Amino acid sequence: MSRQKLQELKMNIRRRIVGKDDVIDHLITALLAGGHVLLEDVPGVGKTTLAKALADSLDLSFARIQFTPDTLPSDVTGMNLYHPNTGAFERMPGAIVHQIVLADEINRTSPKTQASLLEAMEEHSVTIDGTTIPLKEPFMVIATENPMDAVGTYPLPEAQLDRFMMKLSVGYPSEQDTLEMAGRFLDGTLSEPLCPVLTADEILEMKSDVRRTAVHDELRRYIAELIRQTRVQPETRYGASPRAVLVLIRAAQARAYLEGRDFVIPEDIIAMAKVVLPHRLVLTAEARMARISGVQVTDRAVAAVKVPGLT
User: Fold this and answer.
1) Per-residue pLDDT for 269 more than 90?
2) How far, in Å, CA of 25 to CA of 12, rounded?
């Protein structure tokens, strides 16, 4: 039943997004793993559409925050509003109290406002005037951002980037996908409403199954060595954090579950490393000047570690 439901979820999203099956799979993997996703690409390639397609396919509360330079932290977290007539405070929750939160163009707002997401993303709670409020599960932040060299953008700090399980790029569609998208736009099927196919209880049950997916001891050592390799590459100033170990394990478990297995194989780890690790690496100035990317450094780290042969 779970696999059937996941296939329905994929098909639902594909009604809005033509092609990009790998990106859709990664997004669903992050949902099952309990992680957050950062979508970075040029404007107009479908980042927001992809995020909304997932939200519309889930029977969860949804909020969209359109970040601008004047967005305040209280717009995200909420505030206590004072009523002078009664002398009482009324709690006004922000958009973050929903289950699926679309942080649109997150790098167009100030670092102070960006930081208002940190507690929610890490601890699944929000603090308003000293009162901590737990967020309803499942909870997921999907953020979109334009490339760092775009006008009016603020770079996300390392602490913020490390909270995202994956950083994905949608990319331009192929010529065939472009023609199909144009045809579906003209006949109106591209913008048809989507009906939810998964409830909160079903998602939580799947997430529980993911956590029980077996990870062999050899694969744990493989992940640990892979993370260590990111720290010793000559192009890295700072390698992947200890959080990256835990995130990579969970992402590999979720991918295995999505593939219909109850155990992780090395291919799960390698596939997830390519979207889990690159944005966590802080490269040296020389590497950045040479236009070396985190993806390239991750590939070198993967190549440097022997893949375990499990029996």
Assistant:
1) yes
2) 12
**What are the structure tokens assigned to 150, written together?**
């775009």
pLDDT for 300: 93
**Separation in Å, CA 157 to CA 8, 190, 194, 271:** 36, 36, 35, 25
3-class DSSP state of 213: coil
User: In angstroms, rounded to a whole number, what is the distance separating the alpha carbons of residues 9 and 195?
Assistant: 10
Q: Write the burial class of residue 49 (CB in 10 Å: 0-12 exposed, 13-18 middle, 19+ buried).
A: middle
3-class DSSP state of 225: helix
Q: Which of 181, 249, 187 is nearest to 215 (CA)?
A: 249
Burial class (CB in 10 A: 0-12, 13-18, 19+), 304: middle
- Domains, the chain, with CATH or none: 2-199 (3.40.50.300), 212-304 (1.10.8.80)
d(CA 45, CA 147): 13
Q: Which SS3 state, helix, strand or coil, does residue 111 take?
A: helix
Burial of 241 (0-12, 13-18, 19+ CB in 10 A): middle
Burial of 130 (0-12, 13-18, 19+ CB in 10 A): exposed
For residue 281, give the nearest of 263, 298, 262 by alpha carbon.
298
Q: Report the chain's mean pLDDT, rounded to a whole number.
A: 87
Report whether pLDDT(150) > 60.
no
Residue 268 is predicted with a pLDDT of 96
Per residue in 196-244, pLDDT (tens digit) is 899 999 999 999 999 999 999 999 999 999 999 999 999 999 889 899 9
